[in-house]
Amino acid sequence: xxxxxxxxxxxxxxxxxxxxxxxxxxxxxxxxxxxxxxxxxxxxxxxxxxxxxxxxxxxxxxxxxxxxxxxxxxxxxxxxxxxxxxxxxxxxxxxxxxxxxxxxxxxxxxxxxxxxxxxxxxxxxxxxxxxxxxxxxxxxxxxxxxxxxxxxxxxxxxxxxxxxxxxxxxxxxxxxxxxxxxxxxxxxxxxxxxxxxxxxxxxxxxxxxxxxxxxxxxxxxxxxxxxxxxxxxxxxxxxxxxxxxxxxxxxxxxxxxxxxxxxxxxxxxxxxxxxxxxxxxxxxxxxxxxxxxxxxxxxxxxxxxxxxxxxxxxxxxxxxxxxxxxxxxxxxxxxxxxxxxxxxxxxxxxxxxxxxxxxxxxxxxxxxxxxxxxxxxxxxxxxxxxxxxxxxxxxxxxxxxxxxxxxxxxxxxxxxxxxxxxxxxxxxxxxxxxxxxxxxxxxxxxxxxxxxxxxxxxxxxxxxxxxxxxxxxxxxxxxxxxxxxxxxxxxxxxxxxxxxxxxxxxxxxxxxxxxxxxxxxxxxxxxxxxxxxxxxxxxxxxxxxxxxxxxxxxxxxxxxxxxxxxxxxxxxxxxxxxxxxxxxxxxxxxxxxxxxxxxxxxxxxxxxxxxxxxxxxxxxxxxxxxxxxxxxxxxxxxxxxxxxxxxxxxxxxxxxxxxxxxxxxxxxxxxxxxxxxxxxxxxxxxxxxxxxxxxxxxxxxxxxxxxxxxxxxxxxxxx
Amino acid sequence: xxxxxxxxxxxxxxxxxxxxxxxxxxxxxxxxxxxxxxxxxxxxxxxxxxxxxxxxxxxxxxxxxxxxxxxxxxxxxxxxxxxxxxxxxxxxxxxxxxxxxxxxxxxxxxxxxxxxxxxxxxxxxxxxxxxxxxxxxxxxxxxxxxxxxxxxxxxxxxxxxxxxxxxxxxxxxxxxxxxxxxxxxxxxxxxxxxxxxxxxxxxxxxxxxxxxxxxxxxxxxxxxxxxxxxxxxxxxxxxxxxxxxxxxxxxxx
Lengths: 719, 253
Description:
The structure holds 2 protein chains of 2 kinds. Chain A is mainly alpha-helical. Chain A has helices at 2-22, 25-35, 42-60, 63-72, 77-88, 95-189, 193-200, 208-228, 236-269, 277-286, 290-317, 335-360, 382-396, 399-411, 416-437, 442-472, 485-504, 511-543, 549-564, 571-600, 603-611, 626-640, 657-683, 692-697, 705-712. Among the domains of chain A are: 2-120, no CATH class; 292-472, no CATH class; 483-573; 601-712, no CATH class. Chain A contains 25 helices and no strands. In chain B, strands 1, 2, 3, 4, 5, 6 and 7 form a 7-stranded mixed sheet that branches.
């Protein structure tokens, strides 16, 4: 500190001396001011520190250089010595400070010079560098100029490029838009590869994928049609699409067709049928190509026909496995069972077939029961027509084996009853089939034919029977008047046939239908029997006069009537027999009346009285002379006390008691009336009987008609 | 529907099935065979039903466990005069539903009832069916018109005894209310399936009254043996029939 203070105080001192020269007067004032100045401020301190440093440096580090400078400065050895001095040893404290005080200016100047020289040297170097730099810069500039020129050129060139690029970008965007439109269009209006493959390739099975592709194609065509219907008319693209899709569609229909044909061949061989969803769908689609469907169905029909026929023949001849159920033909000896089994088999086959076809055409079953009446509407649906045709063909094939067997069975029947049973069975199935598969079906026609044939066979058989009946005639030596055995047999057959007919009548059939249905049988069977009775009885009568033909005929007729009576549908035949019977009864009544009149002896008298024409008095006619009359009345009286009055021996042979009574009573009534008439005639004056009352009163019933009625047990009014 | 313990889906149009079975419905006239069948296939009572003429056909697919079974049902006329016709339809039936009317004893019993032949007419039907149908014929006796309890003439126990003696299943049903209407058909189907499972019945053979459907055939093709796993499971979880009508000692289950 002291060191630093010392130089500063010395410098101040120097300055003070100089200032003393400059301003003498204000010197003191100035001096004071100077003295009063403190050098404790920052700047002073710093300069002092710099100085101190400088000298310290010259002592420690810069001694050598100081020396060199010293040598350069001629004549100033002392200074240099002094400078050197402290370098080595500072013998006395403050020695360097003192030296510094002395040499400060020189030192400074030296320092300055040194510095300047250094500056110069350095700057010259800098100058050199700068010159080099300038060259470089110039070169650079040229280069830059060139580069700029190039850049400008490039810029110009790239401008058009950019422009083009811009255009291109725009174009690209446009194209992108177009592309997306086109791809949308394509995806909407064309089939992708997979779909085409699905439709066309054989490797892709008919199934969902295939149908989806078809659906799409259809949709495309539909859309396309809508598009082309626009104002611009058909476009080329539209036409192309239509062409390609149409070809695909055709191929797909072909494919369905092939598939269906193949499947049909497969399932057609099974006896049990089942329709898969795919198949139903395939058939549904194929319906748009009727010619293909027809072809496929034709082959199906063929297979079904063969299959059904085979299984029918198997059922007929082989039966089930290990013979159970037994083959139908095993029962050929039992015609009803044989034919019934055959037709039932066919019926069941129809039910299965129908279900299969309904499934195939996706027809919702109306749950109508097969066998119950099917309404054949005016216009059946297309499917219904298909089904009917296929059914008809499939079942039709069965007709041949069935027909042959049924025909044989019909022909081999001897019993007319069985024949008639067959007729009814066939008719039942004819009815069932007509309701199930229609009147025009082959099977219905075949059954119709068979029914007709069975009818013919049946009629032939009963007609033959009737001819036999007529030929048989009556046993001449048989005096009985009951119906003969041939008639009884015939009636038995008739009875059975009637009960078969009865059982075949449908519940809702009207009475007139019932009658009409039986008319022919009645004509064939009843009338000849009646005829036979009458004719052969007359024949017999010619040979055996005593034989009571009338009673016999009546007995036969009442018997036949009794056979018919339980059956309402025979009312016509009953009526006609009743008619004949009534006539016959009347005849017999006449006959019987005549007989009893003869027996009673009144016949001649009564006849004469009746014929009397008043030309001459009755008493003058020989047969009614009083004496004759007397005898006749006497006979009558006797007859009245006989058993014939209540019971006729002859009429007791009538099998029907009612008829006996009726005839006898009618005859008695007439007898009473005849007696009354005789009495009246006798009492008439014109007939000139003397004592007429006496004549009549001599014998019972004494001319009293009322008494006669009493004896007969009848009343006058005939009741 | 009072009886819906089975999963049934009668409305489905297209039905694939595992088995096809032929059933006949038999019994005296007026016992309600057609009505029973009608209720089974249509799920409704058939009003003003006429006598059946000859035979009528209907079908329905039922589900039993995992099996779908198509039933071909032949409804026969009960009247005597159709007997010769209807008998031809017994041929090759796998199941028979023998129906009687619980309110009319006279329809099944002979006129002079003795203990042995109390159900003589039923016996005749049964004998006919056994003689003419498949040798494995499964018969279910159904006492119909169970809704008319107050007019009952045939006791449940009596019929049940007869059924047990004759080795047939038995239950009572009402085709009016639909009560138990499906049960006989299910019961028969189940019984038939069991005999297929046991190997007694072979659907491959014609005349058994049963045949495989498409569905079963597909399954057969994929695995060599036809599995009845579903049925066996069904045994553990028995089908809920109306058990009060169960015949003790009958062969099913």
